[in-house]
Amino acid sequence: MIISRFQRNIGLAVVQPEDLQDLWTLRRIIASGDEISGETTRVIKAQGEFTRPDKGQRISVRLSLEVDSVKLEGMLERLRISGTILEVSEEFLSKGSHHSMNVSIGFPLVIKKRTWQDFEAKLLHESSKSSERFLLVAIDTRDAAVGALSGTHLKILPQIESGISGKMYESSQGSLAQYMAKIKDALQAVHKEGNKIIVFGPGQTKNAFANFLSKDSKLASLVQIVEGIDLSGEDGLFVALKSPSLKRVFADATIVRVQAIAEEAVKRIARNDGRVVVSLRETLEAAKAGAVESVLVSSKLFEKGDESSIVELLNATEKFGGKTYLVDSSTDTGNQVDVMGGVLGLLRYSMYKG
After folding, report:
1. Using CA atoms, how far apart are residues 153 and 264, in angstroms rounded to an integer?
2. Do 123 and 9 share a structural domain?
3. Sign of the dihedral through C-alpha 91, 93, 97, 103
4. pLDDT, tens digit, for every residue of 279-332?
5. Which of 73, 91, 149, 232 could covalently link to 140 via disulfide, CB atoms 3.0 to 4.6 Å apart?
């Protein structure tokens, strides 16, 4: 999260979410009665006898709302905030009317609260710390996939085909250069300062691509080759996330911690260990008792509509020093949590019989 300004004494914060995790953080921070301001767009229908009814002009509108409700639309990667208009820059919207604002990644937002609670200020402060972000390239001579891994979210770009057959490889260096240039363009489209670029796949194409990137002074120092992953394309990305080779590269990255929690939960379930919970009701009960050591919550759980209980669970867990992680189905671990009901928690001590 980019925090341009935070003055707790007057209740003001100016922020810009950088990834899906930041949207989850804002969902926990923004509450009914808060004032939020931002620039949104609105379609103005043209008037006239010969005007098509489906056509209109989209214009920018500066808007301030008193919040009524907040909903995370995780699959759309946006936060939908509804409320009463306090201030508006255009005459076609009136003060006192009800309106909604969609907050997405990269959307600057002003938040004004009467009082910032300690946990809200802590959440905001922690979200400003640089989150690890990796650009993954699974490549061979036929195709390549590029994935941007941020926290527990994997965004996969459209797969890139080389158009080079195996037999023609040696005589197709021009086409190979074009192929690698396309992959580089895809990387640069999602690259941000501080990213690391991890290249892997079967054969020597990964080495050739790393050498290709090394000619760019801005990217050369960011590239690392990982051996032992013999698949390219989208399948290569998913296999890589479970690879011991890549886990060593990720070290203390969030995705590794989340995978370790899920693996430990499965082990405890298998041996009938009571120090694990898999339902929202039981996990929330355990969190309020201070028993939750760590919990994984699926983004799909938000789609079921019980957001208030989820926010209560996350806040109660952290109140007693527990760790909370929001995961989505873009990774195998997220799918695993989805299948198990959307919540997976490790307990400090047993509260329920297996």
Report:
1. 21
2. yes
3. negative
4. 899 999 999 999 999 999 987 777 766 778 888 899 899 889 899 988 887 888
5. 232
